[in-house]
Specification:
Number of helices: 9
CATH topology: Rossmann fold
Strand order of the largest sheet: 5-4-3-10-11-13-12
CATH superfamily: Vaccinia Virus protein VP39
Largest sheet: 7 strands, mixed
CATH class: Alpha Beta
Structural class: alpha/beta
Shape: globular
Helix content: 25-40%
Distance between the termini: 41 Å
Number of strands: 13
């Protein structure tokens, strides 16, 4: 058995992984296994399990089963691009992957991963996804993986915010076949700003929620849009924060909520 599957929380796991932390953070290294095996990764861009290829391994398998060749995938909260790379490989040359990330250091790594692997079907958007177009305060959190939109303004980053409904309505994005959303507590706002395309196109959604209230509101919104919800970690729906949402019943186009067109001059920064 590969030692990569020995939990890093155990003493043996810590001992086996200790030498890996000596690799310089800017080193290019091939991902060792899984669907991304051989793809180039910056060692210090994320946790060790990313370039080991076992990051969220069970979720990876479900994701891979859901993504088809030629799909259009939105990666909301792309971070440094693990799922963006995975979606790029799975959708193939005829697919499209749109990666949304507002944190500057994450964006740097995300763009490098796209460039290093010649991912011609990936487009990076320097923006947070929310419920309105404009700008918002963004709390960088305790590490680069935990940044989130906030109503506070002291000591925070100001980021551009977009809505998925607005981007699709304006023709800047094609409608999605699948959305992966993990944005540290702003998931309900992102879904609200996408309620029109969810109602009209019914993309499959991989959703990580953060906090009980956000989780309940997301579940209610998705159920109202005729989505069937499944836990990705085996926990009951009211206790899990990892959801797979699949549209079960189509709504008529006339019943889909109307979204205002984006403000003139909005566009992507690549």
């Amino acid at each position: 058995m590969s030692f990569f599957y020995i939990s890093r929380k155990t003493m043996l796991g810590k001992i086996l992984r200790a030498p890996l932390h000596l690799i310089p953070s800017n080193t290019r290294i091939p991902i060792l296994q899984g669907p991304l095996r051989g793809k180039q990764w910056i060692a210090g861009s994320g946790i060790l399990s990313c370039w080991m290829g076992i990051y969220e391994y069970d979720k990876q398998k479900v994701f891979a089963a859901a993504v088809q060749r030629g799909f259009t995938v939105y990666d909301i909260g792309a971070n440094v691009g693990f799922y963006s790379l995975l979606a790029s490989v799975l959708t193939g040359p005829d697919g499209k992957v749109f990666c949304f990330e507002p944190v500057p250091q994450n964006l740097e790594y995300l763009r490098r991963h796209v460039e290093l692997n010649n991912l011609s079907n990936c487009t990076v958007w320097d923006a947070a996804v929310g419920s309105y177009e404009g700008t918002s305060s963004f709390d960088l959190g305790t590490n680069r993986a935990q940044g989130h939109l906030t109503t506070e303004s002291n000591g925070t980053l100001i980021v551009r915010t977009v809505t998925l409904d607005g981007l699709v309505a304006s023709g800047k994005l094609p409608p999605p076949d699948l959305i992966k959303c993990d944005i540290e507590g702003a998931e309900y706002d992102a879904l609200t700003g996408a309620s029109g395309i969810l109602a009209k196109y019914g993309p499959t959604i991989f959703l990580s929620t953060h906090g009980g209230d956000v989780h309940r509101r997301c579940c209610m919104l998705l159920k109202d849009l005729h989505y069937s919800l499944t836990s990705l970690d085996g926990l009951p729906l009211d206790r899990t924060y990892e959801l797979l949402a699949i549209r079960q019943k189509a709504c008529s186009e006339e019943s889909a909520p109307r979204s205002p067109a984006p403000e003139s001059g909005s566009g992507r920064l690549q």
